[in-house]
Amino acid sequence: MAAKGNNLRSLIFEVDDDGKASLSVLDQLLLPHETKFVPIENVEGAWDAIRSMRIRGAPLIAIVAVLGLAVDLTSNGTTIRDLAGLANSFSATREYIYDKMAYLTTSRPTAVNLSNAMVELRDIVEKMSPEAPVTREIVGAIVDHGRHMLARDVSDNVAIGRHGADDLLSRHDRPDGVRLVTICNTGSLATAGWGTALGVARELHRRGRLESIACLETRPYNQGSRLTAYEIREEGMNGTLICDSMAAFYMRRRGADACVVGADRVCANGDTANKVGTYALAIIAREMGVEFFVASPFTTLDVDLSCGDDIEIEERPPGEMLESACAPKDMPCWNPGFDVTPAEYITGIITERGVLKKSSDGTFDVIGFVREHSS
Ligand SMILES: CSC[C@@H](O)[C@@H](O)C(=O)COP(=O)(O)O
C-alpha cells in the first residue's frame, strides 16, 4: 500500500506582520471522533492544554510551552503592558520571563524535553546584550526560537525514521518487510510532525517495507487506540490494535521483528522513562527474543541523570482510570503516567544522529554518544 503522506497537524503557529504570534492546538481529547483546533491565548492556556493532555507527547509539550510563551509575550493583553513597564530594565524583563518559564515547567514533570527547552531558551536570553530596545529583542528571540523548535523537531524525526528503518532493514529484510509493535502515541500528534517511533514505521511504510504494525491500546488513557490507530489509518499502514495484555500472545502467534517505542526521558545509562506499559512490553520482547528499540531525539536525552531511579514519575488522577474502566467509583487507584525501562532490556536508541548500541560490556554510553555527535 502506498504511503498517503503525513498530513496530520498537531498545531498551527503563525506570526503576523506586526510580530504578533498566534497558536491553535488540535484538541487530542476529542480524537478520533472530532477534529477541532483550540486557540492558546497565553501561558496559562498553554499550561492547561499540557496538563489536561489536550496536547501531549514529550516533544510537543516542550514546543507548545515555548510557543505559548511567544503568544503570551506578543499579545495585546495585560502582558505586553506589564512588559512595557519593564522595558527599560533588562534584568526585570528577563526575570519576568523566567517566572513564566518556571511556571510552564510545572505542567508535567516526566518528559525532560520541557525542562531542556527552558534551559535552551534561558541560554538564548542570557546571551543577549542588555541594550535597548530590551523587550522587543527578547520577545523576538523567543518567537524565533519557537519557530526553530518546530522545524528542528520535524527534521530530527525524519532523520530518526531514516536511521531506524536502515538499521531494522539491515537485519530483518523479510519478503514483506518488517513487523513492528509499538505503544502509546509517538507520531505526528506527539510532535511537530512525522513522529519518532511512529516515524520509523512511517519511513518503512514509505519505502514499502513495513509488513505490519501492532499498536497497544495503552491503558488507561488509550493514546494507542485513540491516536496511534487514527494515525495508522490515516497513513494507510497495515495496523492492528491490541489490548496491552495481548502483546505476548500477539508476538507468539503473529510474530514481530522489533518493538519501537518513544521516550520521555533517556538517562545517561540508557534507562528510559516512557508511557506506563513500556517496561512490561520490554520484558515480553526479551522473553520472545524480539528486539526492543527506543526512538528518542537528542531533546529527550537527560545526560545529567545517571540512571532511571531518580526520574520523577507523574501520577495522574484516579478518575482517568475509573472513567475508562468498569470499576466501583470509590475504588482506590494508582495511576502512574509513565514507567522506567532499565537499559538492559533495550537493544538500541534511535536518534536523529544515528543508532546508539550497547558497548561490549552491555551498557549504553549516552554521554559519549552525545559528545561524539554534537556539532
Ligand atoms: C514522541 S512522544 C514520546 C513519549 O512522550 C510518548 O511515548 C509518551 O509516553 C507520551 O505520554 P503522554 O502521557 O501521552 O504525554
UniProtKB/TrEMBL annotation:
<feature type="site" description="Transition state stabilizer">
    <location>
        <position position="184"/>
    </location>
</feature>
<comment type="similarity">
    <text>Belongs to the eIF-2B alpha/beta/delta subunits family. MtnA subfamily.</text>
</comment>
<feature type="active site" description="Proton donor">
    <location>
        <position position="264"/>
    </location>
</feature>
<keyword id="KW-0539">Nucleus</keyword>
<dbReference type="GO" id="GO:0005737">
    <property type="term" value="C:cytoplasm"/>
</dbReference>
<comment type="pathway">
    <text>Amino-acid biosynthesis; L-methionine biosynthesis via salvage pathway; L-methionine from S-methyl-5-thio-alpha-D-ribose 1-phosphate: step 1/6.</text>
</comment>
<dbReference type="GO" id="GO:0046523">
    <property type="term" value="F:S-methyl-5-thioribose-1-phosphate isomerase activity"/>
</dbReference>
<dbReference type="GO" id="GO:0019509">
    <property type="term" value="P:L-methionine salvage from methylthioadenosine"/>
</dbReference>
<dbReference type="InterPro" id="IPR011559">
    <property type="entry name" value="Initiation_fac_2B_a/b/d"/>
</dbReference>
<keyword id="KW-0486">Methionine biosynthesis</keyword>
<dbReference type="InterPro" id="IPR000649">
    <property type="entry name" value="IF-2B-related"/>
</dbReference>
<dbReference type="Pfam" id="PF01008">
    <property type="entry name" value="IF-2B"/>
</dbReference>
<dbReference type="InterPro" id="IPR027363">
    <property type="entry name" value="M1Pi_N"/>
</dbReference>
<dbReference type="InterPro" id="IPR037171">
    <property type="entry name" value="NagB/RpiA_transferase-like"/>
</dbReference>
<keyword id="KW-0028">Amino-acid biosynthesis</keyword>
<keyword id="KW-0413">Isomerase</keyword>
<dbReference type="InterPro" id="IPR042529">
    <property type="entry name" value="IF_2B-like_C"/>
</dbReference>
<comment type="function">
    <text>Catalyzes the interconversion of methylthioribose-1-phosphate (MTR-1-P) into methylthioribulose-1-phosphate (MTRu-1-P).</text>
</comment>
<keyword id="KW-0963">Cytoplasm</keyword>
<dbReference type="GO" id="GO:0005634">
    <property type="term" value="C:nucleus"/>
</dbReference>
<protein>
    <recommendedName>
        <fullName>Methylthioribose-1-phosphate isomerase</fullName>
        <ecNumber>5.3.1.23</ecNumber>
    </recommendedName>
</protein>
<dbReference type="InterPro" id="IPR005251">
    <property type="entry name" value="IF-M1Pi"/>
</dbReference>
